[in-house]
Amino acid sequence: MKETVTQILDNYLAQNNRRKTPERYAILETVYAMNGYFTLDELGKRLAEERRFPVSRATLYNTIKLFLKLRLIIEHHFQKQVTYSAAYNKGGQFFQICTLCGKVTDVKATALVKAVESMRLRRFKKDSYTLYIYGVCSSCQAKLTMEKKKQENKKSK
Fold first, then answer.
1. By C-alpha distance, which of 90, 86, 81 is closest to 64?
2. Helix axes 22-33, 40-49, angle to 10 degrees
3. What is 24-91 written as a DSSP string?
4. I need a surface site. Which of 25, 37, 80, 131 has the fewest CB within 10 A?
5. Dihedral, 97, 98, 104, 106 alpha carbons, nearest 10
6. Where on the phi/psi map is residue 133: left (φ > 0), alpha (ψ -120 to 50), or beta?
7. Tens-place pLDDT, residues 83-139
């Protein structure tokens, strides 16, 4: 996959007379080496600390915008935080997000995948999709239940 995403970037830069900078390739390689979701700050920190390749915030921001345009990454809006993840050849993504603690969990839903894949859309070719399911996680639900029981006990006394 690394070779494919690098080739996509190479082709775009060549066709649009843009420079093939080492920063762009270092960021691309780091993004595809990361598991899961990351913020711009986390990406910058990883480049500086692990790769010994610090880049400016402006370079990160502009490169991320380019990768979004090329659909090499996807932007997620989890609660009040913007995160990114590698997107090439990922298909669909489903997430459950706790509205209390903000915990984000990937959901494997083969029935939903089949439903979306079998959809016929007029004058539109789908290439990826994301579904966010908001609710309360089991940990937060347990805390809420305990609090409710405590309040009921106080009222009965």
1. 86
2. 110
3. HHHHHHHHHHS-S-B-HHHHHHHHHHTSS----HHHHHHHHHHHHHTTSEEEEEETTEEEEEE-TT--
4. 80
5. -60
6. beta
7. 898 887 666 788 888 988 888 888 888 888 888 888 888 898 877 788 888 999 999
Rounded (5°) CA angle 31-16-71? 35
∠ CA 143-144-149, rounded to 5°: 100
pTM assigned to the model: 0.73
d(CA 32, CA 40): 14
The answer to whether 91 and 74 are in contact (CB under 8 A) is: no
Alpha-carbon distance 106 to 111, whole Å?
15
In one letter, which amino acid is 112?
L
